[in-house]
């Protein structure tokens, strides 16, 4: 088993686990900028704004765009789980899967 499999298995709630699996592949279609915001969504909008020299309202707009791009607003589980938590879990899972894929490519030469 890969580390991402262990990570996913550690999520006790099957609904959250399923939502993470469904949302994580959507990170591939995000712009680099939105992906960076998603990876740092555990910070407050105020912190992100100061870190990026943006206004807090601009950061909040980016976060709204992120929710739309990941289609979390329409996701059934977004009503059950906090959207930010869901995206943070999905971002971590996506990052782990991407690293595993890269390691496999490096090993096989493909």
Main features:
mainly alpha, 0% strand, 110 residues, single chain
Describe the overall structure.
It is built from 6 helices and no strands. With about 110 residues, the protein is mainly α. The model has no long low-confidence stretch (mean pLDDT about 90).
The gyration radius over C-alpha positions equals: 15 Å
Look at the structure and give the mean pLDDT.
89
Decide which structural class fits the backbone: mainly alpha
Terminal CA distance reads 21 Å
Number of helices: 6
pLDDT < 50 runs, ≥5 residues: none
Largest sheet: none
What series of H and E elements makes up the topology?
HHHHHH
Oligomer: single chain
Beta-strand content bin: under 5%
The total strand number stands at 0
Portion of residues in helices?
A: 55-70%
Which descriptor suits the 3D outline?
globular
Short description:
The protein contains six helices and no strands.
């Amino acid at each position: 088993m890969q580390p991402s499999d262990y990570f996913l298995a550690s999520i006790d709630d099957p609904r959250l686990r399923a939502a993470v699996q469904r949302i994580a592949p959507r990170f591939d279609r995000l712009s680099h900028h939105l992906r960076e915001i998603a990876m740092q969504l555990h910070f407050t909008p105020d912190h992100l704004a100061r870190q990026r020299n943006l206004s807090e309202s601009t950061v909040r707009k980016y976060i709204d765009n992120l929710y739309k791009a990941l289609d979390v607003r329409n996701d059934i589980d977004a009503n059950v789980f906090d959207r930010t938590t869901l995206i943070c879990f999905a971002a971590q899972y996506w990052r782990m899967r991407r690293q595993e894929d890269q390691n496999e490519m490096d090993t096989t030469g493909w």
